[in-house]
Amino acid sequence: MEYTEAWLKYRRLSLSRQQCEEKQYDSLISYAVRVDQGLKESPCFAVLISEFERGVKALLGERPHEVTDGSETLALAVDPAFGSKDAYCIDFTQKDGFGAITAHDVNGLLYGVFRLLQLVATEQTLAGQKWTCIPSNPLRMLNHWDNMDGTIERGYSGRSFFFADDQVLVGERTRAYARMVASVGINAVVINNVNVRSAATYLITDRYFDKVKALSEIFAEYGISLYLSLNFAAPMELGGLTLSDPLDPGVISWWKEKMAEVYAAVPKLGGFLVKADSEGRPGPFTYGRDHADGANMLARAVEPYGGRIIWRCFVYNCQQDWRDTKTDRARSGYDNFMPLDGRFLDNVILQIKNGPMDFQVREPVHPLFGGLTKTNQMLEVQIAQEYTGQQKHVCYLMPMFRQILDFKTYLPGHEDATVADIISTRALKNANGGIAAVANTGNDVNWTGHDFAAANLFGFGRLAFDTAADPESIAREWAQLTFAGSTKEAIDAIVDILMRSWPAYEKYTSPLGIGWMVNPNHHYGPNVEGYEFDRWGTYHRANWRGIGVDRTTKGTGYAAQYREPNASMYEHVETCPEELLLFFHFIPYDYRLKTGKTLIQHIYDTHFEGADDAAGFLETWKKLEGQIEDKEAYARVLERLTIQAASAIEWRDRINTYFYRRCGVPDEKGRKIYE
Ligand code: GCW
């Protein structure tokens, strides 16, 4: 086996005929298609029918057949009057023994089919039930950081299945991937790393057009648009120009011609993702231009083809001096992009990381959300667990993402607008918006290294489709689908581990929102001062008195970038949410938290608790031996939980020892802290 089917196993149900009838699964066997002839020719249509037949056959043991004489028990229908793009409704309430999936379009019908199969696979009763699903976000995207040599930047699941040896790979696994992510509603994928170097710069040349086109066509069958990351210096590297100034007429016409060529060869391309002026990548700053100049120049070049430019806001000074306490990396996104609000063209979307730093286990929400009022925006999260255990530790991120999506931004004129309202285009009435995740897949047999990390891939798709979805329900559904055939006790335990995993990871790593404390470069494992004297702007400022960064008006002023009342909330120690206390304030070790504990005691306690939690996950798993049907998955998870438990102890001891040595205050409970 080269790869698992992940949550698409469709294990044959062990229900009696009567149970199937009670749940109304018998109505899946004869179906009629109510779809216009033109739409039937769309690449996605054949796929959705074959998915439906294949899934029902696998689950119920009988292949459904199409009827045209009105005797069907299930209708698969496209009705453009229903909902909006990609929407579907699964309805088993209309008349006895009859069901329907009605979708706005063919892609919506594909999503409806996958969802119906997932409902059956988890043995839900269809009779009398209705599921109406209108996607929250227009764009539901995965960003792969795959390099053309086959490595993956921040990849923890093996090598790339899109590239090897500077070639584009198109094969069975491409299709299996597209199918898997489409089954949870993903509709856009960037296949190459945002750091576009060497061969990847040539993805927009005839060296790769055939393969890129083939890939885009497979993706299209699953309703997915292919996007590429772009090198801003391509006019120089490919075109032999002496500059890539976005206002230079030669550069402008080079891009126009280039895009004409690209879209002639790959007409289905959705557009491009751009990382510019960030961590050494080229960009408009070199020419004294700003990011609106850069993004709009490209946007004009792709506009005739319906293309989009997704422009990242991860722009900061990575040559900082740790002695400088005024420059604050957290401020940089807002400082660079807020003055440009309103200048971006309609087919530009700014892609903003969830927090102002870089995917730490806890960060405040990026202040550009709610700041920008006239700009298309996308949220960028990271399911590749760069800073959350690198898929060796279990860290289920949907509870974190829900908090981010639900954050109230106080967008002017829309007092209740959350991040979800902004990116979905509901609050701003933008042309474009959505959510992207840095992907966590590779060519490992289980796709994601840790079997449990697939819950983040599944969950991200589900949450992107429905930003109000409940993380625990998502986890349960994922566990039931992936570990089909295992005991109820096992499923419950998996859900419990997932739901406790982010809090556990937060407890045994850096405290109260301060972040970092990881080993430089690879970012795995504890190193309290690993980034303290470095150039990356990632400091915790711990000394003998306390720890934390003063980001109030007396400090770097970052807190003031938020809309009121958020700015005041963060400005004052009393109102700052405690989980972010050290992000915003320098706090003495003897400061009393709301629990009545001192800061130092809180640090000790959480680190002991977190390591105990990780040990508990392993114990639980050991007790489940024999209750997980897939023995190989059981063994893989056992190995990872063992690594995590040991690593959590290392984190606990290093952090506790560091602070004990700093302040000399002993643990009230007298537990072992190394001198
Ligand atoms: O800080 C980081 C990661 C880089 C990544 C960058 C980004 C792709 O460590 O590996 O580069 O974020 O988001 O651009």
What's the structural blueprint in terms of helices and strands?
Layout: H1 17-23, E1 30-34, H2 37-40, H3 43-60, E2 65-66, E3 74-78, E4 88-91, E5 99-103, H4 106-121, E6 130-133, E7 139-146, E8 163-164, E9 167-168, H5 172-182, E10 188-192, H6 209-221, E11 225-230, H7 234-237, H8 249-265, E12 271-274, H9 291-302, E13 308-312, H10 332-337, E14 348-353, H11 368-371, E15 377-382, H12 398-405, H13 419-423, E16 433-438, H14 454-465, H15 471-482, H16 488-508, E17 546-547, H17 566-571, H18 581-584, E18 587-588, H19 599-623, H20 631-663
Helix pairs in contact: 3-4, 8-9, 14-15, 15-16, 16-19, 19-20
The protein binds 4-O-methyl-beta-D-glucopyranuronic acid.
The site of 4-O-methyl-beta-D-glucopyranuronic acid has 10 residues, from loops.
Summarize the structure.
The protein has 675 residues and is of the alpha/beta class. It is 35% helix and 12% strand. The chain has 3 domains: 6-132, Chitobiase, domain 2 (2-Layer Sandwich), CATH 3.30.379; 139-482, Alpha-Beta Barrel (TIM Barrel); 508-549 and 586-663, Alpha-d-glucuronidase, C-terminal Domain.
